[in-house]
Amino acid sequence: MAQSISEKPPVRFQRSNYVVRDLDRAIPVYRDVLGLDVVFIKESAEDSYSYEVFQIDRAAKMRFAVLGTPEQPNVMALTELKGVELDDVPLPSRSAIVLECTDFDGVMNRAKEAGLTVFKEGSLETKDGRKGRELGFLDYDGNLIVIYLILEHPK
Questions:
Q1: pLDDT digits (tens, 9 = 90+) for 22-31
Q2: C-alpha distances in Å from residue 84, one per residue of 60, 121, 142
Q3: Is residue 58 a part of any domain in this protein?
């Protein structure tokens, strides 16, 4: 059955979320290195549903920031947990955000200048034959960020 234009799709991706230890330290990675906008920052209520669904110890004080771009508002969030011990990120990395990035060299240089772990650059070839560059780096909490830039389109 065809969906009318006025109906919402049954599923719409809202945002990804990373847990961080210090929101004030984490935000510059996403704002200054990647160029995302901080949409808002909010203290979470003591009875927030997030405690249950993310299985967060209720002893934690929680605060979060929503980030976006002019074209993609609310594309991701950072959730700060204070007052509880956070395990180190298990390896291999179990999640990542992957971002197309027109300022590839700028992001790479800013990540290095920020002292982040930056992996060796790789070559990218997509399933439809586009070629480009890709690079991974970790934020201060070990969350994986992968950027890519398409340089060649198949003819």
A1: 999 999 999 9
A2: 5, 35, 17
A3: yes
